[in-house]
Amino acid sequence: MTHMELDLRERRAIEDMLNAKMPVAKIAIEIGRHRSTVYREIKRNSFTDEELPYLNGYYGVTAQKSASDRRARRRKLIRPDGLREAVIDRLKEGWSPEQIAGRLGFEGHAIRVSHETIYAHVYSREGQSEALARYLPSRRKKRKPRYARRSRGLVFPPDRSIHERPEHVKTRETFGDWEGDLMIFERAQGNANVASLVERKTRFAVLFRNNDRSTTHLMNRLMDVMVPLPLPARRSITFDRGIEFRNWRKLKPGIGTEAWFCDPQAPWQKGSVENLNKRARRYLPRNTQLATLSNRYIKAICERLNGTPRKCLGWRTPTEAFTEEMIKLR
């Protein structure tokens, strides 16, 4: 659903219901909004006056004017062409909004803008029509809400750290412990990518294509790939802390598989899958047009990788080692 700001009618309704001592949660239900929207509206647009505190409160008309003034400030870069052009030119040169705003102040421009104003313009309708987001350091097409960003520590809690992983996983003593990663391709290929999995004991590799980088899509595809294996053959998977793995909690109830995570910026801790990715890049370089590849082609790559003798397996192939372990489970 398209985001719509509160209008004057809704703000007057909020004022009336607040005067009637109605709880905010009930007000939200009455006007068909989320309660956090109403809480935020009251906090941002309430009237305050230190000299006349008895007048403090929420007034619908005053709130509407405050919101309108705020929108006008966000549109500061729409009006003065010279300022807008200077900002856009520097964005194209690779400057961040913070650098641009700071430099404008340093140069003593008559009209100054904050970095938040620049971000607001980049993600506005006008900025999106010019595709300005591609010049930001993050190149993110949509901005995440400032107060909705979750700490990586909450997404990947300490008890899921690789340092809490059982010792038998580290030593490769048991069968069924995997490492997982995502192979990313050139931006021209869109969101398409290839997920890579490798079983730590046998070095058996699995590659499968995704047409979407969303964590929901990736985890659903991963479970579809893993579920045909017996439970002892899919005990755990170790990932890095890429945000595409943030739905890892689906694995345990979905297919009975534990998830472990490397330290931040430590991909070498899952060296088996990193090694697999290097081998797979011979056949899937970054400029590969994934849309033209068939599943049969990707399966053929897996068969070639798994059919190559490995010194660490006593010159057996990963397919032979994996098959031996699967026979033991029967």
From TrEMBL:
Which keywords has UniProt assigned to this entry? DNA recombination
Q: Which GO terms describe its biological process?
A: DNA integration; DNA recombination; transposition
- Is Transferase a UniProt keyword of this protein? no
Q: Which SUPFAM superfamilies match?
A: Ribonuclease H-like
The cellular component terms of Gene Ontology attached to this UniProt record, alphabetical and capped at eight, are: cytosol
Mention any Pfam family matching this sequence: HTH_38
UniProt keyword annotation of Cell membrane present: no
What's an example of a GO molecular-function annotation for this chain? nucleic acid binding
- Integrase catalytic domain residues: 162-326
PANTHER family xrefs: TRANSPOSASE, TRANSPOSASE INSI FOR INSERTION SEQUENCE ELEMENT IS30A-RELATED
Q: Which NCBIfam families match?
A: transpos_IS30
> What's the protein called, per UniProt?
Integrase catalytic domain-containing protein
